[in-house]
Amino acid sequence: MSFSMLILKNLLRRRWRSGLTIIGIAVGIGAMVALTSIAWGFERSWLDVYRERGTDLIVTKQGSRSGIPATFSGEIKTELQALPHVQEATALLGDMFSIEDAPVTLVLGWELHSSLWNHLNLIQGHWPTEASTNNIVIGAITAEMLGKSLGDRIQIETEEFTVCGIFTSSALVENAGIIMPLSEMQILTERQGLVNFFEMRLDRDTTAAELERLRTLIKTKFKGLIAFSPGEVPQANAGIQIAKAMSLATSLIALVVGAIGVMNTLLMSVFERLQEIGILLALGWKPRRILRMILFESLSLSFAGGVMGCALGFVVVRFLLASPWIRGKITGEVPPLVLGTALLIALFLGMLGGIYPAWVGSRMSPVTALRHE
Question: Which of 231, 188, 214 is nearest to 81 (CA)?
C-alpha cells in the first residue's frame, strides 16, 4: 500500500468524524470568504462610482463615517468653488429608503446642471428639469426590481414622484438607485439648504502636494468638515470597516475552532491506532515518517474543508447578491486573492491542529504502542 493510500485509508476509517471535521472547517472558511467578498465588493462599488464621476475629493462632515453621513449647510459651495485648483464643487444629498418591493434603495439629490450627470446613459425618457416637479430618473436595476417604466408613479416617504427617465451607469451602485434634483430631495427629507457631500473636480495638473494642501485648507477653513480622496473610501466608510472587522473576527474564530477540531480528530485517531503505529515502528518506520503521515492526514482534512468552504462562500455571496437587500449595491466577484488566502488559512489550520497529535504519535516507542489494548 502506498503512503498516500495509507493516509486516505486512515481518514476514511472514521468517515463521520472526518466528515464533521471537514464541515466545521468549511463553515468557518465559507463565512470568511463571504464576508471578505462582500466587504471587497462594497469597497469596489463605491470606488467605481467616484471614478466614473471623475471625483478627486469628497467633502463631508468630520466624524460621519457611515454610508450616509450627517448633513451640513450647502451654502459653502461658493467658497469651496473659489479654492485653489478647484474646477467644480457639486453638492449632493443622499439617503436610504424602503420603496415598495425594494427594502433598501439609495436615493440621491443632484444639482441639475452639474457634471455628475455626464457619465450616466439615458436609455429612456428625459432628465429632470427646473420646469418639472416631482420627476425622477431611476436606474435600470431599480426599474426591474420595482417593475416600473416611464410615466409610472413611485411613492417615496409621503411624496409621489413620476418616472421621467431610466438610465444605466457603469457604476453598479447607481444602477440600483434613484436620482432627483437636489432641491426636491431637500424638500422630501425636510433638509432645506442642507447636503451631506460635496464632490470636487480638480485641475488635471494638480500635484499630490497641492492636493494635500487643499485637504488641509478645507479642514482648517470649514470647521467640522473633512476632505478625502476616493482611494480612502474604505477608511472613511463605517460599513466597509465593519465588514472587514467581521471578516477578521470570523477568520480568527475559524482558526481556533478549526484547529481544535482537527487536533481532536487526529488525537483520537492516533490513540485508536497505537498498535498499528507500533507495528509500523517495529517494521522500521522512522519517527519522522510517522510524524509526516499524521501531518499529511491533518493537511488533507483541512484542504478538503478549505475547498468546500470556498465553494460555500461563493454560493453564499451569489445568494446575497440576488437578495433585494444587496442586489445592485455591490459588485459580485469573489476575488481570487480571497480564495487563495482562504485555502492558505485552511492549510494553516491543518498544520496547527496536526502538530501535537503528530508529535505524540512519533514519540511513541514500539513496545508501548504494541502493548496498548
Answer: 214
User: Does one domain contain both 283 and 176?
Assistant: no
**CB proximity list for 199: less than 8 A, separation 6 or greater:** 50, 53, 55, 57, 58, 59, 89, 90, 92, 116
Residue 336 domain flag: yes
Residue 50 forms part of a structural domain: no
What's the CA gap between 39 and 41, in Å, rounded? 5
Burial of 213 (0-12, 13-18, 19+ CB in 10 A): middle
136 and 197 fall within a common domain: yes
> Nearest 5°: phi and psi at 342?
-60, -45
pTM comes to 0.72
Q: What is the pLDDT of residues 123-166, one digit of tens each?
A: 999 999 988 888 999 998 889 888 899 999 999 988 899 999 99
**Cβ-Cβ contacts under 8 Å for 15 (sequence gap 6 or more):** none
Compute the chain's Rg from CA coordinates.
29
Confidence of residue 21 (pLDDT cuts 50, 70, 90): confident
Distance, in Å, from the CA atom of 225 to the CA atom of 136, rounded to the nearest integer, reads 29
- Cα-based torsion angle of the residue sequence 150, 174, 80, 130 in order, rounded to the nearest 10 degrees: 0
CA distances, 298 to each of 187, 219, 261, 324, 362 (Å): 63, 55, 10, 41, 15
